[in-house]
Each structure stands twice: as structure tokens, then as C-alpha cells.
Amino acid sequence: MHMDRTFQGSPTPGPNATTLARAVGLTVDMPVQLGASSVRIVDGVDFAIGVGERVALVGESGSGKSVTARALMRLDRAARVSGRVEFAGRDLLALSEREMTQVRGGDIAMVFQDPMSFLDPLMTIGDQVAETLRIRGVGKADARRRALAVLDELRVDRAAERLDAYPHEFSGGMRQRVVLAMALVGEPRLLIADEPTTALDVRVQDQVLDLLDDVSARRGLAVLFITHDLGVVAGFAERVMVMYSGRIVEDGSVDSVFARPRHPYTRGLIKAVPRIDQDLDRLYAIPGAPPPPFARPTGCAFHPRCDAAFAPCLRDVPAVLPVEGGRAACHLHASQGA
Amino acid sequence: MLLSVDGLCKTYASFPNPPVQVLHDVSFGLDAGQALGLVGESGSGKSTIAKCLMALTRPEQGSITYDGTDVVRARGADLLRFRRDVQMVFQDPYGSLNPRMTVEELVGEGLLVHRLEPTPAARRDRVAEILRTVGLNPDDRGRYPRSFSGGQRQRIAIARALAVQPRILVCDEPVAALDVSVQAQVINLLQDMQRQFGLAILFIAHDLAVVRHLCERIVVLHKGRVVEQGTRAEIFGSPREAYTRALLDAVPVPDPAVGRARRRQLQHQS
Fold it and tell me: What integer pLDDT is reported at residue A16 of this predicted model?
């Protein structure tokens, strides 16, 4: 069974980047509880991430952004993942579970939104950061030494003393640094950060972003930054991919996406963010709400909320076509041949 | 002044640790029809202020005066009137609506409690009217919260608060849990309600951009103290305190050039 997929050529990373990871036709079906049927959360997504590239994956709740990221690492056991996921030339979906364990925390690492529920309250910070290495057979003293080096790199004050502290003794921002250290200690080439700053206060968020910026530049680390907030990634990402209802609707360099958003949804998202540097009498609001994945509208999933929708939008899923500075899935561009 | 808060102090027990004073001499005022923003980071005491205001907890010192009545010591009819005139909208529209009540029951409950519309027919009409006002379809009044999206649930919560015709709406992070595309709808609705009904809004939030948009006056809190208060133009145009400036600087701006300049500036400092 092959869908009429009309992606033009294979997905590429941003300009000047060698491909590190690539997803082609990535589709994720999740079983519905107490039933044999399943829901398609991610519906045929193509993208690539370059070596050292910082890519933002932006979407609202139910857009499938987290599920897409988790599928790259095969984290959801119940999920049926199809398509291809390549990392440094290897097909991750074809690996055995044992091989995949080496990839997780090795080549690809992940940090999550809530550091407190991720950390073990009964284990010291040092042991938790070193654990990734210990699992890989690194000796105790060596693992501890490397854990300390990463905490220093992440500017944790008095890191040597605090190796033996417990998570509750740390502030929210410090805990997020510890979680980041756990991810970085295995020297990954790709870091997936799923809303890592959403639960933090603005000043702490700013510090964590700064830290990520720094580490990514110094290590040549690629980052896939998942967020619902376009503002957060504007200064951090080189490229932005926008997801809506399980599909990528726009992908382009951060400058072109913000300056000339091609998809009406992207345009709306940018306009709907209240700005600290502007006075507006009234905020722009996109009507309606994002659809749940089990009630995805026909054609372009955004059409019921789109003020530019016309006949084809109700009928056909728009192909992802190249536009200047990136690609977009919108019938407006297809009809203009842009 | 419709509501005035003077010298509020509140301490929480934290056994076995020593008690923690979460509010230190907090004072501010709210005029009728005004939107006031209460901003601060987690631990700044902003939600404790809301609890004191709603008479859900008692401050050990200080007073809260509403329309001439001391709310902290109010009893009986005075307290009941206050509880009608001051309504609250919470952050989590999933946790704040009873899942076993229909929209009609949720929105009509205040009318029943305060005996505002004695007959069932009058209550029905009033509920339908208020649902239309907040942009919901009155035909949906028999449905339960679970069948609504987060943004619609927040509209239900606002309808529930507005049904009893309050003079003050206390909103504790009302859009923090909503999707970006829906946030603007709820903020616009609050603004409409303020203008249409002359409603005063006490808007508690950590998102300064939202506060700038909605509020004419802003109170900045830090560790339980008011560090600065002033008009929108004062706080955003020429903040006096370093803390306020630091808060403002850290707010991300959806503009790549501005964001990159900010990152460079930080790298310079470190």
C-alpha cells in the first residue's frame, strides 16, 4: 500500500550541511486503548538534520512533534513506526533492540520537559550522570571523572562537591543542567530536546538556551529542538520545521520562515505571539483549535481554520514542494507554481 | 479604588524546616475596570496573593479592602457579596471544571448559589446568553467538559465566572496551558469582557509579553516583595529596577535577528 506521496527528491538538511539523520515517509500509528484500531499520529514525514545543525520542530499539542522525535529513538514500544529513519547511514528501524540501546544515549540523546520526574530522587547527581557511561562498561572512577567534566562544561558551580548531592537540593534550572549533562556525557552527535525550557522561568530559560547554544557550537552537536513556542527558537535555531496534525507543513531557514512564512498556519502562529517589544490593540488569533489526530480533517488538515482555503484544500493533501529558502505544503504555492 | 491590598504578610509552615515567609509587606491597588498584571517568577508569591484575595487563606498581617469592606475579617453577608463580586479563572482548564457537570450546570452553579435567577427557565436563558457572549454555542450546554478543547474549556471557565456579574476577575495564568494559536483568542476575549462590562482584571502571569498586551498597570514581584509597580509605559518603557530589566531582557522575541543579538550579548557577558 503506497500513499500518493509527492515529496520532491529526498529530504536534505540546510545548506552547507552533511546529512546526519534523515527520516523518509516516517509514519507512526498508535494503538487505541481497549481496541484493535490505531490512530495515525505522524503521517508520512520527511526531513533531514545536518551534522552540527540546529533545527527547531515547532507544533502545538497533538501535532505529533514529540511522537516524531520519540520515533527517531524508537522510544514508544507500542507504536507502529514505518518509513525509514537513517542515522549516519544506518537504518535505525532495522536495528535490533540491543543495537538500538547503544544508539540511545550514544549517538542520539534526549532531554525532556520536566527534569524532576526524569531524575531519580534517591540517586546522587554524580551517579545519574555517570550511569550512561557505566551501562556502556566504563569504569567507575573514569565515569565519575567524565561526569564531572560535563557538569563543569555546563557551568554547574562547585560541580565536584555537588556530585554527591541529590536532585531535591538543586533548583529547576540546575536540574535541567543535570539532565543535559546526562544526555551529553555519552558524547552524542544529535541531541533531541523536547520542550526543555517550557517549565522554566524566563530568566532560567534564557540561561539554558545560552548553554545549549554554547555546547552545540563547541561540540559541533546537532540539536533537534521541539517546542510550541516560535519565540524561544528564533535566536537559537538555524532551521525551523513546522508541524500541524501529523505532517510537516513548512520547513526553511529561520530567517526565511520568520520573514516570509509560506504556510498560512506558520503565518498565523507568528502573528499570534504577543510581543514584548510592540504595542498592539488586538492580538491576531487563529480561529478554532488544532484537531485531535483521530479527527484529522480531509485534504489540508489546516483548511477549516485557514482564511485562504479554496476547493483543492478540502480534497487533497498538499504535497511538500520546494519554495525559496525551504519547502512548504500549501495548495496556494502549488497553484502558483512557486 | 475598588480593591486595595495593604502590607500583606504570609508565612507557610515548612516542618521540619523553619517557616517560610512568602509575602513581605505587599501593597497594591486595583481600580474599577482596570486590568492589572501581577508578574513574577515561580516562588515570587503571586499565587499566594491570589489565594489571600479569594479569602482561601488568611494573611497574618495586612488588609485587603474591597469596596470599603475588610475582606480578611469579613463574615456572613459581606463575605458572600465579596465571593460573588470577585471571581476566579484558574490555569488548568482540565482540572478546574468538574467533569461530571454539564456546561449548563457549571455555568449556572453560581446563579443558583447566589440565588440570582430563581426559576430554572430564567437560569437557562441567562446561561445561554453568557455562553454566546464568550463565543460558545448555547446548543452545547448539555455537553460535558471532556468534549471541549483546552481553549473552549477556558471559555467555559470564563463564562462560569462571568455568570454572576462580578466586578473583578482574578485570572491565575489563564493561558499558560493553552496552545499558542488559541492563547490569543482567550486574551482577546478577556479584553472584550473588560471593555464590555467594565470588568476589573487581576491578571497573574509569568509571560510578560501577554501582560504588556492586556494590562494598563503592572506589579513586579520577586521573592514575595513588590520590587516595582507602574503603568505599562513605565514598566516596559523605562523600568527602574535591575530585576525588572533582567526579566524583560529574558523574554524571547519571535525575530531571529533580535534573538541572535541576545545570544551574542550573553556570550559576551560569560
Answer: 67
Give residue-wise pLDDT tens across range A125-154. 999 999 989 988 999 999 999 999 999 999
The set of residues, in sequence order, having a beta carbon less than 8 Å from that of B190 and lying 6+ positions away, is B35, B158, B169, B171, B174, B201, B203, B214
Provide the pairing of β-strand B217-222 with B225-231: antiparallel
Is the CB of B208 less than 8 angstroms away from the CB of A258? no
In a domain, B127, yes or no: no
Q: What is the CATH number of the domain that holds B35?
A: 3.40.50.300
Whether residue A258 is found in the same domain as residue A302: yes
Q: Are strands B217-222 and B35-39 parallel, antiparallel or unpaired?
A: parallel
> How far apart are the C-alpha atoms of A9 and B113, rounded to whole Å?
65
Range of the domain at B176: 3-102+147-269
Lowest mean pLDDT among A2-6, A8-12, B45-49, B133-137: A2-6
Nearest CB partner across the interface for A60, out of B181, B255, B266: B181
Distance from the Cα of A150 to chain B's closest Cα (Å) equals 17
Integer CA distances (angstroms), B203 to B25, B175, B194, B207, B210, in order = 20, 10, 12, 11, 10
Euclidean distance between CA atoms A263 and A230, whole angstroms: 14
**By the CB < 8 Å criterion, does A156 face chain B?**
no
Measured CA distances, B55 to A41, B19, B91 (Å): 45, 21, 18
For residues A169 and A233, membership in a common domain is answered with: no
Q: Enter the pTM of the model.
A: 0.91
Mutant choice from B44, B175, B180 vs A, greatest count of A C-beta within 10 A = B180
Q: What percent of chain B has pLDDT over 90?
A: 80
How many of the other CB atoms lie within 10 Å of CB of B187? 23
B188: Cβ–Cβ under 8 A, 6 or more apart, which residues?
Answer: A282, A283, A285
The answer to whether B261 and B66 have CB atoms below 8 angstroms apart is no
Residues A282-293, buried b or exposed e (16+ Cβ, 10 A)?
A: ebbbbebbbbeb
Residue B265 CB coordination number (10 Å): 11
CATH number, domain of A100, equals 3.40.50.300
Nearest CA in chain A to B210: A274
B18-48 b/e (C-beta count within 10 Å ≥ 16 → b):
eeeebbbebebbbeebbbbbbbbbebbbbbb
Count the domains in chain A: 2
Most A CBs within 10 A among B136, B153, B179, B186, hence the mutation to make, goes to: B179
